[in-house]
Amino acid sequence: MERGHANGGTGSAADFIPPNASLTALRKAAATCRGCHLYKNATQTVFGEGPRHARVMFVGEQPGDAEDKAGHPFVGASGKLLDRAMEAAGLERDDAYVTNAVKHFKWAKDATGKRRIHKSPNRGEVRACVPWLEAEIARVQPEIIVALGATAGKALIGPSFSVTKQRGIEQKTAWAPSLVATIHPSAVLRAPRPIREREERAFIADLAKVARLLAHGKRERTHRRSDKLLPWSATEAPSLTSSAQTRSSRR
Ligand code: SF4
Fold this sequence. Notes:
251 residues, two-stranded antiparallel ribbon, globular
């Protein structure tokens, strides 16, 4: 039953997640999600894609303009950069599951009124949508999750997450045996030209670390929460990080 919500949704994607649903059934259910207001201005839900038992899952922020139109994640400029970086790092895109913390495109018109400009989802929108991500992780049970950027990192680790401090570091979490955070490929694309090559090399180096972790051996797929979706509080860390480490930024 739908609850009223000031933002124009029920307040949580959990209201739309069928119990014990397969990945395919989840994708179908997500198409009619009204957990927050973001569905109103987007073309369609962009659910994750990839093999059912992918060893690695990439989590970005939200679909962009190209993804919103195509209905598939990471098919625009950021996705092309991710493809190149994965190849350079020795990771197969076909072996990876790619998704986002938020499944609808949030945007605003530019000054000309002709272009749709990306707007980052706020904490309430991430909190509303994270049950889809949790359900995807529970079904795929990846050995390694790669959080791309601050929104994905905060969704998975909590509000204290800092991509500057935590990128490239393997963390043990309840989401998956390993989690590695790095910047979102769109941040590489936005970098000023003099440092863009350096940023791309650093991004590839982070993915190469993921490739080495995968090559090091199979990890036990232990998603401790399985099908039990727990409420995610935007005011508290999800308490999923068991041994987070920090270090200085490489930038
Ligand atoms: S952004 Fe997420 S919670 Fe909001 S309507 Fe879309 S799928 Fe549902």
